[in-house]
């Protein structure tokens, strides 16, 4: 381990959120250590990568020794069986690292634990989930806050809605929205497009977690990540097509289509129990964070514009890689034919 044992930050998880946090921390001149079970590419320059199992307390205690802040962005695949088997030991492993080191632990959470609510979501709402994934999320969050209340750990929870942005692939507002739209095809969203739905820009999620890690007064509390003013999914898609300069084309997939899609796309099948979020208004109140630390939310139009630029580069890179692969295949066929 090359990172000095003084004022460095540990990020568990090298997915999009973890990378965004690392990128912003490095820009601030912070020393950053990222932890993953497997090697990941495209990490920000200057980041130290350690490979290991975050469910192993001995490993996490060693990794976190001397850390100032720990960012918990790790999680199993979006699969209920994987969540039941892997999430609790993962949570306990990372918590063990935080307890042993005394570092602040900032946990990136979802809104699943609240369950189906008819009003705007606030941090003081009880956990009332009836879905399998919602119950697990509530249990995980309560495990961390119980450790904080017992004086064992210093914990703050950052909670976001469905997020989108650069590098986001497995969200309801990502590949199946941006890629078809860029190709002039209908964007495939989920649920009733005319209902209000809060969306979180991934960069704002990362920034909010860093801010919570910077302030002692944030500890022991749940915080909703600041979001741009909530509009309907249709309005979000209209902004997307306006930025592309193309006529708006969109579809909203209901529960039946999600079930059918689940035969081909595992994530679709896993999302069916969460469809209540897209069949009812889904609005998040983040005024608590704004009052305490300021409004850091990026306007949707700016965020969507940034995301378009990222996807354009992503698709170009994919096309170039496919071209190279095709040339290699042709060369191999020619060699085999001679």
CATH topology of the domain at 8-164 and 199-227 and 284-298: Rossmann fold
Q: Which sheet architecture does the biggest sheet show?
A: 7 strands, parallel
CATH superfamily of the domain at 8-164 and 199-227 and 284-298: NAD(P)-binding Rossmann-like Domain
Structural class: alpha/beta
- The CATH architecture assignment of the domain at 8-164 and 199-227 and 284-298 turns out to be 3-Layer(aba) Sandwich
Order of H and E elements: EHEEHEHEHEEHEEEHEEHEHHHHH
Estimated radius of gyration: 21 Å
Give me the count of strands.
13
Mean pLDDT: 91
CATH class of the domain at 8-164 and 199-227 and 284-298: Alpha Beta
Question: Within the largest sheet, what's the order of strands?
Answer: 3-2-1-4-5-6-11
Task: Explain what you see.
The protein contains twelve helices and 13 strands. The longest helix is centred in the last third of the chain and has 38 residues, at 300-337. The protein has a seven-stranded parallel beta sheet with strand order 3-2-1-4-5-6-11, with helices on both faces. With 338 residues, the protein is an alpha/beta fold. The chain has a domain at 8-164 and 199-227 and 284-298: Rossmann fold (3-Layer(aba) Sandwich). The mean pLDDT is 91.
Overview features:
single chain; 338 residues; alpha/beta; Rossmann fold; two-stranded parallel sheet; 46% helix
């Amino acid at each position: 381990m090359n990172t000095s044992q003084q004022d460095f930050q540990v990020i568990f998880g090298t997915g999009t959120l973890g990378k965004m946090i690392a990128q912003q921390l490095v820009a601030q001149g912070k020393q950053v250590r990222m932890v993953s079970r497997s090697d990941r590419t495209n990490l920000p320059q200057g980041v130290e990568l350690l490979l290991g199992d975050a469910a192993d307390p001995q490993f996490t205690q060693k990794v976190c020794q001397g850390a100032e802040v720990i960012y918990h962005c790790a999680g199993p695949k979006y699969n209920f069986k994987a969540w039941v088997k892997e999430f609790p030991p993962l949570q306990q492993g990372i918590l063990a690292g935080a307890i042993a080191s005394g570092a602040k632990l900032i946990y990136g959470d979802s809104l699943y634990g609240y369950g189906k609510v008819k009003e705007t979501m606030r941090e003081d709402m009880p956990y009332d989930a009836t879905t399998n994934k919602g119950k697990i999320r509530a249990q995980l969050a309560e495990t961390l806050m119980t450790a904080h209340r017992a004086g064992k750990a210093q914990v703050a929870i950052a909670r976001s809605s469905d997020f989108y942005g650069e590098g986001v692939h497995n969200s309801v507002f990502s590949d199946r929205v941006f890629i078809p739209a860029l190709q002039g095809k209908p964007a495939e969203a989920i649920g009733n497009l005319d209902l209000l739905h809060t969306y979180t820009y991934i960069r704002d999620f990362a920034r909010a977690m860093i801010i919570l890690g910077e302030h002692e007064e944030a500890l022991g509390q749940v915080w909703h990540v600041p979001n741009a003013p909530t509009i309907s999914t249709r309005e979000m898609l209209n902004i997307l097509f306006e930025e592309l300069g193309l006529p708006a084309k969109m579809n909203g997939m209901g529960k039946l289509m999600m079930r059918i899609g689940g035969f081909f796309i595992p994530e679709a099948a896993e999302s069916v129990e969460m469809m209540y979020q897209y069949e009812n208004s889904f609005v998040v109140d983040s005024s608590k964070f704004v009052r305490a630390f300021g409004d850091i939310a990026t306007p949707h139009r700016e965020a969507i514009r940034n995301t378009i630029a990222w996807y354009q580069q992503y698709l170009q890179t994919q096309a170039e890689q496919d071209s190279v692969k095709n040339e290699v295949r042709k060369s191999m066929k020619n060699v085999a034919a001679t």
